[in-house]
């Protein structure tokens, strides 16, 4: 058997070389501990965020994570558990060189869709709109908003009512004078001196009163087929805009300039249903109308929007008549017939404006019928685009009688854009949360989901632990050298 020997000097050199190699190996491993823990944290957080609510994405293009995971649990505890579970799978010590394992996961900060007046919805909505929105579309929306705001508001109904009241009061006084003259003993008075008020075949004030009373009974039945109107109702007090909300602990803010406003409106118009654009969502049918009006039923929200359109159309149509001398002359001719007996220019003039107001009111009713049927109406009409005849306004009683349709003009959807622009983003966003939660609760799968438990951003940290490997050969049995690392990841949809 061969024998060998090892000098003391060579032993010391060998130990030094081994120490150097093992130290270098441990240093590389420590570097890898940081690299691997960062990678595991990224994968775990991204895996957790991949479990976004599919219903919100499919129907409203909103990416959000239900922190309750369908259980009704409030807060980020389940998210932390899910994240550490994903991390543990990726960092299985039997399958990774670093030999590092996750110990604990904490959700340091998180933001909910409803935080700060639902700014998360505004942010995500703008992102969704920017994916396919050209700059000219933004300019078109801005132009639409400017056009709607340029219409001078006039109280057409009050003008018509005051003129009609002046005429009726003058008639009553005239008939009283005629009666007194016929029944007194004064030979100087003659009832023939007082002209009997005249009538026209189709009194515009009767048509005005008929439509106004019809609106009072039900505005929708006057402008559309009431059988096709949704009667879906919902409890406002249970919706996010009316109840106390859970909140995250992350600061959330969004800009509010005109371009961002236009982007958010485009998002809403594309992803939410309206009267003439049914996207087949669960829950509310008239979602855009709810965003504008915020009423407790589809029909009430629609009626509110229709009422707003009527006011705009009345003002625009009043302006059209006033800008056309021939139309003013027709109104004046009728006023002279109805109020000429007074011989009072002031009363005749008041009746003229009341007739113009009643005419505009009837034309506006025809306009709304056309808009709700899918047609377009010019913002301010010309004489050639006018439909109604001041001498036959009672024809408006026919529900199928609509304004003349043209290829150019403003559609019902474009009016909705204008009304959305009149509301601030905060109001629209929190009502959008109402819409989405109502839709979720109308399904069997998401009955427990709450919009104020939907996270769209979070800052998550994971603690890791690892044992010393290469240098452990130099440790005494009593020594326990370990590494503790913490890695954080912020992620937002």
Please, could you describe this protein's structure?
With 493 residues, the protein is α+β, with helices and mostly antiparallel strands. The protein folds into two domains: 8-118 and 451-492, no CATH class; 133-247 and 256-439, no CATH class. The chain contains 14 helices and six strands. The protein has helices at residues 8-49, 54-60, 77-90, 115-130, 135-149, 156-183, 204-223, 258-271, 287-293, 298-322, 325-339, 345-372, 412-422, 425-441; strands at residues 65-66, 100-112, 376-377, 410-411, 454-467, 482-492. The strands form two sheets. Strands 1, 2, 5 and 6 form a four-stranded antiparallel sheet that branches. α7 (204-223) runs parallel beside α12, α9 crosses α14 and α10 (298-322) crosses α12 (345-372). It is rod-shaped, with a radius of gyration of 37 Å. The two termini are 73 Å apart. The relative contact order is 0.18. The model has no long low-confidence stretch (mean pLDDT 85).
Overall pLDDT? 85
State the end-to-end CA separation: 73 Å
Structural class: alpha+beta
What is the number of strand segments?
Answer: 6
Provide the helix percentage.
40-55%
Q: Are there runs of 5+ residues with pLDDT below 50, and where?
A: none
């Amino acid at each position: 058997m061969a024998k060998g020997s090892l000098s003391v000097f060579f032993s010391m050199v060998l130990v030094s070389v081994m120490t150097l190699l093992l130290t270098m190996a441990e240093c590389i491993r420590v570097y890898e501990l940081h690299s691997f823990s960062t990678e595991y944290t990224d994968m775990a957080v991204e895996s957790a965020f991949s479990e976004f609510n599919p219903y919100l994405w499919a129907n409203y293009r909103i990416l959000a994570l239900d922190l309750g995971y369908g259980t009704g649990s409030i807060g980020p505890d389940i998210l932390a558990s899910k994240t550490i579970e994903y991390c543990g799978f990726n960092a299985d010590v039997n399958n990774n060189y670093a030999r590092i394992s996750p110990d604990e996961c904490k959700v340091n900060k998180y933001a909910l869709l409803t935080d700060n007046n639902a700014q998360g919805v505004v942010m995500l909505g703008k992102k969704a709109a920017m994916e396919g929105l050209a700059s000219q579309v933004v300019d078109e929306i801005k132009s639409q908003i400017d056009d709607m705001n340029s219409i001078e508001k006039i109280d057409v109904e009050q003008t018509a009512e005051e003129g009609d009241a002046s005429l009726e009061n003058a008639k009553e006084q005239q008939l009283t004078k005629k009666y007194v003259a016929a029944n007194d003993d004064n030979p100087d008075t003659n009832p023939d001196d007082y002209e009997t008020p005249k009538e026209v075949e189709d009194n515009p004030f009767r048509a005005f009163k008929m439509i106004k009373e019809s609106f009072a009974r039900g505005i929708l039945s006057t402008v559309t087929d009431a059988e096709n109107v949704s009667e879906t109702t919902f409890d406002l007090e249970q919706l996010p805009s009316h109840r106390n909300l859970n909140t995250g602990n992350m600061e959330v803010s969004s800009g509010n300039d005109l371009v961002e406003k236009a982007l958010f409106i485009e998002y809403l118009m594309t992803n939410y249903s309206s009267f003439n654009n049914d996207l087949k969502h669960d829950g509310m049918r008239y979602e855009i109308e709810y965003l504008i009006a915020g009423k407790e039923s589809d029909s009430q929200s629609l009626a509110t929007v229709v009422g707003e359109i009527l006011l705009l159309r009345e003002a625009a149509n009043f302006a059209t008549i006033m800008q056309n001398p021939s139309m003013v002359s027709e109104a004046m001719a009728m006023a002279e017939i109805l109020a000429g007996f007074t011989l009072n220019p002031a009363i005749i003039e008041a009746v003229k404006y009341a007739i113009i107001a009643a005419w505009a009111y009837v034309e506006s009713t025809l306009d709304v019928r056309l808009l709700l049927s899918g047609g377009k109406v010019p913002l301010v009409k010309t004489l050639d685009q006018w439909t109604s005849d001041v001498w036959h306004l009672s024809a408006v009683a026919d529900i199928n009688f609509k304004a003349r349709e043209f290829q150019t003009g403003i559609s019902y959807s474009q009016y909705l854009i204008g009304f959305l622009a009149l509301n601030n983003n905060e109001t629209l966003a929190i009502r959008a949360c109402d819409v989405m939660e109502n839709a979720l609760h109308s399904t069997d799968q998401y009955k427990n989901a709450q919009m104020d438990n939907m996270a769209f951003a979070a800052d998550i940290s994971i603690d890791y632990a690892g044992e010393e490997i290469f240098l452990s050969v130099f440790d005494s049995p009593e020594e326990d050298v370990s590494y503790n690392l913490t890695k954080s990841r912020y992620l937002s949809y």
